[in-house]
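Quick start: read one record
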Amino acid sequence: MRTIKIFLFLLTFALPASATDATLAKILASLNAEQRTLLYQYGTLNTWATPAEADSFWRAHQPALGAITPEQGKVLATELLNNTTLTYTIKKPSRLQALRGVFTASRLLLGLAALVAAFAVVQLIGRYLPGAWQWLRRHFYPLFRRLFSPKMLSWELLAAALAGVYFGPLIPDLVIRTIVIHAGLVLLWTQLTAILTRRYFAKEYTHIILQSFDDYNTPLQAFLYVSLPALLTSAAVWWVMQVCPDAWYPYEVIVPAMVGVFTLPPLRNMEKALSRLLFPFSYERLRAKDQRAATYVVISLVVWAVLLMLPVLLPEALLVLSIFLAGALLLISIADVIHSGGKNYIWLQLVTLGFLFAVIIAGSQLGLLLLTWTGMGGLLLYVLIKYWELPVMLGWSWKNKKAWGALGMALLIWGIAVLIRSRPEWFTFFPG
């Protein structure tokens, strides 16, 4: 009885705080750019200036802040101050910005001038020295044939890729740096694949890669053709992350890494055992490619758990992998996508829901709002998918009733939105 009283007391004590937080969140969402700027400045004065200066600033700008009370203003100012990152943006042209753009444009024009000059020189040689091309062809054809053979060209492109990855972070311009590094990473992955498969044309080695995900190649061949190039590419992305400040490489490193992990020989040999974790009940109509897809999902779940337990958090990789797993589980949990039997279908629903709730909890515990939104978005998609799927499984047909079904789905989404607006504290998973 005493425990129940304590629980009720804590519950009633928490409700006013949740209501206050919800009110402040609504005010924060309704602020315009000027009000956010004023509150950020007010928070700065509260932190670094005297109370008198902060109060004077508040009184001077009270009309622009509307009905916000000083108490609410302090909380909102602190929130903005602690969770805002200032970025440098150009509001209007200036002489310094114009000069900076002139220097960037001049570098691009110098490169273009060199290309045009080279083309002009080639044309002039052909016009005024008509025998020069025949002489060059006769004496340099063996060298050019060797230099630009498919095999040598792959090695040359690999060298260019390594140079782009290594020297790309030194380029000061953001756009050019990003293009050079990504071109280097793409060439690194493709040319490593071409060299290891000994197929030097994209159409040929792409076909071999697709075969590696089936049973046409041995586990060792799948490792050489798919896993090794992907893992080396992920290592290159990881190196770029350490030397380049750009924000998108931590999101990209997980992609080649997971492709490399999928085709590791030990995991290829354990596919049937791993697929039983998603399909624990035997079913004769279960296809081999469905078992392989289940294996990839299980491996991704294990990697997701490992990323969660690492002492150094990799939030970008965790977010990308969470999005992939949410989409994959939502897809295979549909009865018409994988025919796995009734018991396996129920088990897949439990796994999908369990993972989505785990993503929400992980996001709240780690303070990663995007991760929490991924889990909540996955739950919303799950509800909408089952809205269309479950009636069909129970014998209902949506034929000639899709318009009514869409109207019902709109009402369902509207009801969820109203519930979120009326009870926002139910959907707030972050500590105060």
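The radius of gyration is 30 Å.
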